[in-house]
Amino acid sequence: MDSDRRRHSRSWDWDSPECRAQLDDVFFRQHDYIQAGSPEHKEFWTFFDRFQRFKTKRDMTGSGSSRKEEKKDRKQTGHVDLGLPKDYDARYRINVSVCTRDVEERLAKSEHRGRKSSSGPGPQEVSDCRLALLHFLDFNQRQSFGKLAKLRREQKNLPIFQYRDRIVDLVRRHPVVVVAGDTGCGKSTQVPQYLLSAGFKHIACTQPRRIACISLAKRVSFESLNQYGSKVGYQIRFETSRTAATKLLFLTEGLLLRQIQQDRTLAQYEVLIVDEVHERHLHCDFLLGVLRTLLESRPDLRLILMSATINIKLFSDYFNSAPVMQVPGRLFPIQVIYQPIPPEEQASRSEKLDPRPYLRILQAIDQRYPPEERGDLLLFLSGVAEISTIQEACQIYATHTRRWIVLPLHSTLSLAQQDKVFDIAPPGVRKCIISTNIAETSVTIDGVRFVVDSGKVKEMSFDPKAKMQRLQEFWISRASSEQRKGRAGRTGPGVCYRLYAESDYDAFAPYPVPEIHRVALDSLILQMKSMGLGDPLSFVFIDPPPAASIQTAVTYLKEQGALDSHSELTSIGSLLAQLPVDVVIGKMLVLGSLFNLVEPVLTVAAALSVQSPFLRSSQHNPDCATARQPLHSNQGDPFSLLNTFNAWVEVKGERGGGSRKWCRRRGLEEQRLYEMVNLRRQFKDLLRSHSLLESEDSAPSAGDRTQRRDRLTERRKLHQLKRDHEQQEGSRRKVLRLDEGQDGDFSSGSDSEEKGKGKKDKKGPEQDVDIQEVKFKLRHNVSELQDAVNVSQDLSSRQQALLKLLLCRGLYPQLALPDEHNNTRKDSEQVFHTRNKQGVVIHPTSVFASDPEVLHVPEDETREMGPDRRDSSRHQLLAFVTLLETNKPYLSNCVRVPALQALLLVANSVDSNADCTRLVVDGWLEVELREQEEALNVLSTALTLRAEWERLLQAQLGQGSMGVSGVHGVSRKAMEKLSEGLVRFLLYTEVSYSLRRLAAFQTQNLYVGPQSESELFDAKSQGLNPLFPGLEAKPDPIKGGLRVTSFFTYNCLTDSKDLYSECLRTFWTCPNCDLYMPLTPLERMQHEASCRPKGEQHNEDPSDERASSSSSASSLCRVYHCDICNEDLKLTSTEILKHKRQHMYSVK
Amino acid sequence: KYKRSPSEIFTCQLCGLSSPFTYYGQKPPNTRAIVLLEECFVTKDPFSPDKEKFLVLGSTCSMCSSCVCVGSDCSLFYTKRFCMQCVNKYLDQFPHQIQAELAKKRQSSKTAVS
Q: Which Pfam families match (chain B) (predicted)?
């Protein structure tokens, strides 16, 4: 038997896969705890090898030596006997056993039968394997329990842990509670968990930044032992991990506001936590206001405000003296050193920053602290230009000393470059991170020991007078200053160098200016209107914005057509309120849905809503510039963006992941393109849900069954890739090279950024799996996208003209006029004027900055009509997306449009003189036409086109709001006819005119003003007021003249001749009917409006073959009482004219 | 004897560690051939993506019946569960290996504190 066993063992080989497979049949069957083929199974065999090696080693050293001593110990036992085994065995320490008796018996039987031939595992092998398995199970238990214990220990050590019960108790007893705690106290991760474990369900926690939603959801689900479940989820604009099981949801402030729009009482939540309220973002301030009113209708709702220990009383008071729980933070001591910049090193406004004060600090650190003491430096500057100046100087020092790696950090860097600040410096070398205020709150970098604070910040402010955003440098607040300092004490004691005096610090404002006081409130007011919150001026904000700022926004929204004259939402306004974009972008989308231009408009709208994909740093790289060249369009920046997006989708379709390289070569940030494609999809869905877009054919590119199956398999694979990526994410951090910062991407420019616009994603592009590509493929159907893109590629010149008009109407009143002397100026000195701001320039990133000639009026086509009058039919205007003042006022994202046509089709106010040869648009642009005849033609065409456009738009919107699906409210034919008309008007209007900006003194006596009763009576008695059917032309009470349509006032300009003087009458033949008679311009337009070409009449109403001017459309007729005939006649306006004329001539 | 409760909390009487458990007994669900040698407070292993993996949080001391976690500071398993207090009380009955191990641990934790 013994020899038998030996022989048997000899044939057993632990390393042979066959032998292992036989044991797998015993221990790792299909339904076992660990199954063959699973990752644990693989781990087991690795563990097994280690375990065997360990056993062999132990057997050789003979650790059984201590056994003899045990008996001696036993003797001392007291009265209780624990009944422990006499011989020690590690096996006794494992509380698990594995029962495989059934399998073993079966095995034994088969072994018995075929003893000779079998080389299967004997009892010894089975027992060895079982022992290893027990140790493996125990090892895994210990590991997991260790993690759990560590987690609980860390939670317990957080300062906020002591307050756990008190916080839960306060929330139970009060509708609103303020939790105030400084950095590191753990409030953001712990408070939601305390409430969860206290039994609260349906908790929402808002964050100002998207990245925080994701990272908090991840952390909290880990901490609440639910990392593989969906109890804790997040929801941001394009991504959600929320399921029906989600009890705690992290979401952005903006998203919660949108949810309130849909669900007024937020019935889906039991508890709301608003985090980081002290940051005072626009959305957050507004959200607090909305929640304050919402609480009245939801007494059961619990609201928790979480804040740094800044201005706590403000929040508590706003919510009826809500109780405050103040929690100390956990910061290591930080030494503050005030080192004001000496006067001779202070930069004057025009000069570059002097780097000497900064270099001295680097030197001081090198002298004072040995390099083996780790700790990085974080340097706060105000803007990108400042960063590159100091970066350059520090880099020279770093190259010399080889003790620093200099890294810039701001939001215009590519994500890959931003990501470098999280990498690790090699031993003996420190990171020197030069950052904007992005690192104050949005980006948290561990391992910082030294902070240098310049005390400056560039902040966006809004100038309501010029309707311009302004990026200006300010001193920071004491609160910001403390926040910056705190960044040095997160992982150990630190030092903060302040480049200002303590007296400066004392003079700082206590808190930063809340965003609501600094920005344009257009979107906010629109949202308030759509939420039915009443008069924005009487809304109780936590810190009300200036009334003037609200008023400006209301006026602007009226100009945009989102609010009517009573400040109520229009139908387009209520739609715009639901789009999560700027009003101007939303308008484009709505306008685009009317014409066959949805696809390109979707792309442009998406492109204009994200940061530019064109990296600033690549602009000066000649290779990038050349590669980019084919993407540029001299029609305007939106067209370049459109081209870029289309080309990218093309590349995606052909090469998939190869798009990354394609982007890099062109200096494009691919992340922005991914954002665009997501946003575009959201816009499309929104338009569809408002019936502004026909739903796509329900069968999603059905294909045959195999195709569908293939797609399904691919999706499953992609999901797996995504999960794998999420598993390993964040675990790897690269070690930086010493020459890392010297890549020479000193981006020059005047940009800086707003807080919070920064990093959205921490994933570097250098990983093996392009996770963005995976997500892209999961979310979008590339071939569908390609189809959509093909529609917008190679637009015909007609489509292009129409698209430009749509953009222009969307962007209106954001128009700029090229200065008349631009032809004679250098490229870099081209000047433009907007209505409210003179002398603005084009941002260097715009296509018109490098190619300004396309905006010039061609010399050979102009006619000098006087010293300051140049007539041409080629004047152009720029419609722009943003006007931002940094060191100069810059226009960005511009598109050029034909001036006269665009103005007549989009402007809110067009005023004319008596013969319509002089027009003033919006009170600032003057158009003078040479020929009266041409002037009337142009004006009349524009009025007709606009009326039709408006009619179709209203039909489209009305239909959308009624939710009728399927049937489109606007007939394709009517739409095609209109677009044809618009295109013809845009491209083929050959009218010579001059265009200039009115000087201030000229705008003062622009209008004739209110006219006397007798004049008005005169006008009425002439029967001329209803110039357009359905529109009553009334004397304008302010400007004078006659208000013909909502936007056109006739003859109100001061140089006007007498309204009805005969000298204005000229003989005119109507091209449609046979009318030939002398008419005033007004009469003529009136006739044209009601008289339509014969062909059209037939089309409209084929049953009425006898269509003539008298019966063209009965709706145009009205009852006219002729005093001379003393008869009531049913006539159109033109017919009334004709009729009266008969009398006139007969009298004479 | 087997108890199943969705959200009862296990709390260690020595270190205070607490966590919800989903099962108490010797045969957690879906463990097939695996049997626990003592009645344990068990939960799903939160650190494994596999839903079927279990994690033992703790059990009751075989001597004093106090509820203790499986952490090495709180209890020890040697054919039975002993809380640390009982281990220390009856230290002499434990094999030499365990005594040595505990002495070594006490030593190292002392140096860590000082």
A: C6_DPF
**Given its phi and psi angles, is residue A923 left (phi above 0), alpha (psi -120 to 50 degrees) or beta?**
left
Q: Do B31 and A27 touch (CB under 8 A)?
A: no
* Chain B residues with CB-CB distance to A27 below 8 A: 33
CA distance B80 to chain A (A): 8
- Residue A130 in tokens: 């079982």
In a 3-state reduction of DSSP, which class is residue A822? helix
- Greater model confidence, A729 or A535: A535
Query: What CATH architecture is A159-327?
Result: 3-Layer(aba) Sandwich (3.40)
Domain A334-513: CATH architecture, name and number where available: 3-Layer(aba) Sandwich (3.40)
Average pLDDT over residues A137-157: 95
> For A598-626, what is each residue's pLDDT tens digit?
999 999 999 999 889 998 777 778 888 88
User: Residue A639: what pLDDT?
Assistant: 95
pLDDT averaged over chain A? 83
What is the chain B residue with the closest CA to A39?
Answer: B50
Chain A residues whose CB is inside 8 A of the B17 CB are 148-149, 152
Domain span(s) for CATH 1.10.10 in chain A:
520-566
Write the pLDDT tens digit of every residue in A182-209.
877 889 999 999 999 999 999 999 999 8
With contacts defined as CB-CB under 8 Å, which chain B residues touch A88? 95-98
Residue range A784-811: mean pLDDT, rounded: 87
Is the Cβ–Cβ distance between A381 and A434 less than 8 Å? Answer: yes
B93:A82 CB<8 A: yes
- Residue count (chain B): 114
Q: What is the pLDDT of residue A1014?
A: 53
Nearest CA in chain A to B37: A95
**What distance in Å separates residue A226's CA from the closest CA in chain B?**
6
Cβ distance B92 to A227 less than 8 Å, yes or no, reads no
A520-566 under CATH 3.30.160, yes or no: no
**CA angle in degrees (0–180, nearest 5) for A367-A368-A373:** 105
Q: Which of chain B's residues have a Cβ under 8 Å away from the Cβ of A77?
A: 92-93
Do the chains contact at A88 and B97, CB–CB below 8 Å? yes
Interchain CB distance below 8 Å, B90 and A141: no
Residue contact A148–B19, C-beta within 8 A: yes
Q: What is the mean pLDDT of residues A725-735?
A: 67
Q: Any residues with CB less than 8 A from the CB of A821 and at least 6 apart, and which?
A: A831
For residues B64 and A415, the model is more confident at B64
State how far the Cα of A572 lies from the Cα of A969, in Å rounded to an integer: 15
Contact at 8 Å (CB) between A868 and A798? no
Nearest neighbour of A73 by CB, restricted to B47, B78, B92 = B92
Q: Which residue of B has its CA nearest to A152?
A: B17
CB-based contact A144 B55, cutoff 8 Å:
yes
pLDDT, tens digit (0-9, with 9 covering 90-100), for A688-705: 887 788 766 544 555 677
Report chain A residues whose CB lies below 8 A from the CB of B61: none
Closest-CA residue in chain A for B76? A93
Lowest mean pLDDT among A206-210, A676-680, A782-786, A958-962: A958-962
A78 pLDDT more than 70: no
Give the Cβ contact number of residue B104 at 10 Å: 10
Q: Which of B18, B47, B95 is the closest to A147 by Cβ?
A: B47
Residues of chain A with CATH 3.40.50.300: 159-327, 334-513
Buried b (16+ CB within 10 A) or exposed e, A178-217: bbbbbbbbbbbbbbbbbbbbeebeebbbbbbbbbbbbbbb
Domain boundaries, chain B: 3-88
